[in-house]
Amino acid sequence: MGIVLFTAISFLAGGCGTDITSYPVFLRNFQESVPSGNINSDKGTLLIWFALDSAYLHESQVERYHQYLAGMVDEFKKAYPNVKVNYKFVASDDLLEPYLHDIDHGFGPDLVLTKNLYLGRLMERNALFPIPYNEIALDNFRQDALSQMEYGGKLYAIPVTLGTQTLCYNKKKVKQVPTNLDEIVSLSRQGYSFGITSNFSDTLWGLGAFGGKVFNQEGEVILNQGAWSKWMEFLITIKNEPNVVFIPTSLATNRAFSEGRLAYITCWSLAIPELVASLGLENLGIAPLPGLPGAPSSPALTGFSFVLNPTSNDEQRGLALKAATFFTNTEQQQQWILESRSAIPVNVHVQIPSSLFTIQAQLKKQSLTATSYSMKEIDKIEFMLDIGERFYTSVLSGAITSQAAAQEITEQTNQYFAEQADHESKHQ
């Protein structure tokens, strides 16, 4: 149930595309990204796997992204005409086992687009190749995106795109956008319906509004410091408000919204293309999730990244690194963002005019208060999801206080990982 926290992915969510060359502000950069002539002498053959979250996409959207990514490969081949590129698409949920199998046997793709969620698991299997910091232009990337790629002082992936949670609303039903949590109450009493995806992971976005975080600087869980308890008490308060609906899964929330039964919902950026298709671009509004004065919401910053195969030879890895760099340059990132309508760029040089592209602008605004989790932290959150969900449900039902639940989640998670660390240190 809570796994949506880390499967949410923006650029791979498909959706209504935009022809970038239709807008003069992008025309010059786009044309400059298409090289004329054989400008690179590199030779070789490159195998790429693109992992798609196809389980969350309509069939037409999957096909659209197949075409789009194929087109992007064609652009790379124009820049590197002597490099042969073979590629295939795989479902994200089907990526790990075949990739790890291939690596164990000394072959496999040279470059893989994968969920950041999987980086820790790939690290445990020695399936990631550390990327020298001096071989990529670090200042092209958002630091909070790079921090998800690092482990033990080394960089193990190149960020590609980001996604997060946000507020979606139906412009045909409402005119006002709530910026404060208290406005959810007042607007619901005026007859406007709110759909809140209600489970442990999908409600962590409210921590920031009460000044809280999941982890401290040492990587320890600190849900017992009061913020999560206050947030849970707020949720209990609004649960029985008129027109506030708690829905267990994001897919069910999105469906109710698409059918016109809700005016506002908490949503992941991956849902935006489907919502655009249902409501029409002119009717879908996007805004940051409400917080409290001076304390914005703090949803998770999720994403996908490129990783290099450690069993490839130096020449193959060099070509793979050039491809990853090409796919994340300013021109390619701009086109990805506009094509998907739901992507947040990792390249800091991408400029999207907010007057023309309000959805992209609002997503980027929300991402600035989002929380980026490291590989170690994601491992801990994955462990914490089952524990957290049980206690989350118990708190909402009144079976346990929010303070007691916060203490249990914190202690059980920290104790488990402390024991793991102690076990590893004894066997080194």
Automatic annotation (TrEMBL):
Keywords: Signal, Transport. InterPro entries: SBP (IPR006059). It holds the Pfam family SBP_bac_8. PANTHER family: MALTOSE-BINDING PERIPLASMIC PROTEIN, MALTOSE_MALTODEXTRIN-BINDING PERIPLASMIC PROTEIN. Belongs to the bacterial solute-binding protein 1 family. This is Extracellular solute-binding protein.
